[in-house]
């Protein structure tokens, strides 16, 4: 194998592939280096639902990028979602901490980037089954996230790989990069994996966060985070992040923060290549969520699900045994996401009484019975609408359920056991809007770029669903383009 290239991309996830396509379309010879074996190409991206947060004025904008016009389109309602809406969501959920410049670049760049990806063969669809409810013969989307890739993360990776192959991009697997190489002038000239060196005119790092390292989780996220289950690839252990910091990159973002969700309690320690995202349990706004004592500990209906799910994993981790249960009754059961709640081997319990359900699931029966009685008494009549924040909240509870609060009164009752599944970490290296890595002196490190989970500064505390793919696509594309320009001319285009 030739260990030289114009542009080296480390990591074969969405951010890496976007960088590779952008570099290759500018004529660069691109070499991608991947720690995993051939069967695990795609990293966390493979495990995603492929949901990507993009902006659009109307349904026509979306119709332009989806694969086959869906026959449900004429009966579909989607509110417009502008860059200003996306930016406002970012500011709200990150409690105002998201880097304004990077956020601006992402929210204004994503729609064009989605069209560009489509041009490279990535196929999109509207995710009716995950982000819409059917009401009176119309489909209503909620939460600014109608778009996803065809066949989710598996499809996205297959489409990316095919595009890379068409463009002559070389992919070398089983190569764990552990060093960034700089010449005496400080310019980045390649990377190393053990004793093997790979040389290039520019390097794009897109090797994920540190969520798959137990030690780094405990060290940066805090006590008990080593006990969380990893939802995706076991390879994102922070090796390249550490190498970049060692090479002089400035750290950025929320190093004690991460994206973590309700995840099947029996899930394996890291991602299941077959079930991928089906182990998630995201219909909780229709439930009450309790711990093993039968007590509620979060407001299930605080917000549209896309704006709470990524922070609720941490709440579950804080419960005894890092265990929680989502409780539904026969009224809401038909609304559950089928792919998640009917996945093979799901931790599901069913009974005709709450006490019996508690018994089966291993929840304190007296505790759960008292919680359900108190909760039911706090619900009030009114129109229930899962597709909007319906304001159907409880009254008088110290811990309210703010929307979608219907009594649990129609057997059979269902309980799903969940634990904390970590998705990715929010701490990374500092980049500018071209994806250039910035050093401790606030200077650009010549020849070094980063994108995706590795880049810090966008997400703090929480995250608007679908923004990971949005960020990785926008900054991966920019980084790849700039890296190619630098490699061919020695000069950046911006
Ligand atoms: C179950 C699940 C569902 C998700 N669903 C969504 C969703 O629907 N929408 C969304 O926006 N986000 C979702 N995410 C978040 C997702 O992590 C990001 O959006 C995005 O896929 C990350 O892309 P990336 O390219 O930065 O990282 P990755 O896709 O993880 O790619 C990083 C690559 O780097 C490789 N690597 C790691 N270390 C090294 C090394 N030392 N040397 C060489 N290579 C290395 C890894 O093996 C991996 O292939 C989900 C994540 C999970 C786990």
From TrEMBL:
Highest taxon, organism lineage: Bacteria
Transmembrane stretches, start-end: none
MF annotations from Gene Ontology: steroid dehydrogenase activity, acting on the CH-CH group of donors
Segments forming domain FAD-dependent oxidoreductase 2 FAD-binding: 6-467
Named cofactor requirement(s): FAD
InterPro entries per the UniProt record, alphabetical: FAD-dep_OxRdtase_2_FAD-bd, FAD-oxidoreductase_2, FAD/NAD-bd_sf, Succ_DH/fumarate_Rdtase_cat_sf
Keywords (A to Z) from UniProt: FAD, Flavoprotein, Oxidoreductase
PANTHER family xref list: FAD-DEPENDENT OXIDOREDUCTASE 2 FAD BINDING DOMAIN-CONTAINING PROTEIN (PTHR43400:SF7), FUMARATE REDUCTASE (PTHR43400)
UniProt-recorded name of the protein: Tricarballylate dehydrogenase
Organism: Streptosporangium canum
Organism lineage: Bacteria, Bacillati, Actinomycetota, Actinomycetes, Streptosporangiales
């Amino acid at each position: 194998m030739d260990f030289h290239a114009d542009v080296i991309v480390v990591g074969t996830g969405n951010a890496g592939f976007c960088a590779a396509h952008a570099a290759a379309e500018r004529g660069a010879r691109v070499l991608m280096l991947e720690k995993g074996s051939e069967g695990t190409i795609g990293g966390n991206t493979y495990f995603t639902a492929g949901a990507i947060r993009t902006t659009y004025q109307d349904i026509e904008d979306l119709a332009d990028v989806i694969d086959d016009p869906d026959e449900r389109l004429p009966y579909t309602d989607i509110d417009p979602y502008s860059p200003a809406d996306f930016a406002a969501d970012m500011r709200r959920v990150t409690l105002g901490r998201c880097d304004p410049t990077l956020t601006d670049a992402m929210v204004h760049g994503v729609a064009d980037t989605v069209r560009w990806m489509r041009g490279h063969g990535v196929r999109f669809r509207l995710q009716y089954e995950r982000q819409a409810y059917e009401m009176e013969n119309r489909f209503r989307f909620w939460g600014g996230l109608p778009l996803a890739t065809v066949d989710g993360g598996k499809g996205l990776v297959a489409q990316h790989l095919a595009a890379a192959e068409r463009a002559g991009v070389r992919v070398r697997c089983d190569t764990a990069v552990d060093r960034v190489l700089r010449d005496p002038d400080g310019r980045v000239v390649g990377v190393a994996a053990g004793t093997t060196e790979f040389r290039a005119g520019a390097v794009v790092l897109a090797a994920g966060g540190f969520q798959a390292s137990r030690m780094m989780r405990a060290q940066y996220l805090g006590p008990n985070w080593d006990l969380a289950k990893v939802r995706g690839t076991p390879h994102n252990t922070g090796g390249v992040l550490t190498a970049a910091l060692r090479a002089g990159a400035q750290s950025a973002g929320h190093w004690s923060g991460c994206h973590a969700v309700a995840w099947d309690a029996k899930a394996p320690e890291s991602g299941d290549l077959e079930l991928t995202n089906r182990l998630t349990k995201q219909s909780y706004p229709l439930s009450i969520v309790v711990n093993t004592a039968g007590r509620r500990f979060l407001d299930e209906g605080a917000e549209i699900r896309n704006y709470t799910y990524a922070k609720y994993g941490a709440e579950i981790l804080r419960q005894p045994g890092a265990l929680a249960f989502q409780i539904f009754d026969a009224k809401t059961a038909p609304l559950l996401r089928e792919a998640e709640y009917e996945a093979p081997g799901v931790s599901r319990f069913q009974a005709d009484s709450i006490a019996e359900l508690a018994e089966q699931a291993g929840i304190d029966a007296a505790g759960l019975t008292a919680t359900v009685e108190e909760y039911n008494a706090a619900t009030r009549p009114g129109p229930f609408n899962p597709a909007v924040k319906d304001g159907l909240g409880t009254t008088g509870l110290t811990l309210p359920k703010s929307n979608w609060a219907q009594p649990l009164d129609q057997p059979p009752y269902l309980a799903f056991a969940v634990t904390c599944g970590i998705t990715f970490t929010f701490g990374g290296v500092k980049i500018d809007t071209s994806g250039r890595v910035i050093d401790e002196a606030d200077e650009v490190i010549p020849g070094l770029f980063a994108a995706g989970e590795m880049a810090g500064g966008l997400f703090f505390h929480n995250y608007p669903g679908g923004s990971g793919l949005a960020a990785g696509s926008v900054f991966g594309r920019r980084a790849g383009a700039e890296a190619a320009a630098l490699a061919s001319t020695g000069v950046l285009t911006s």
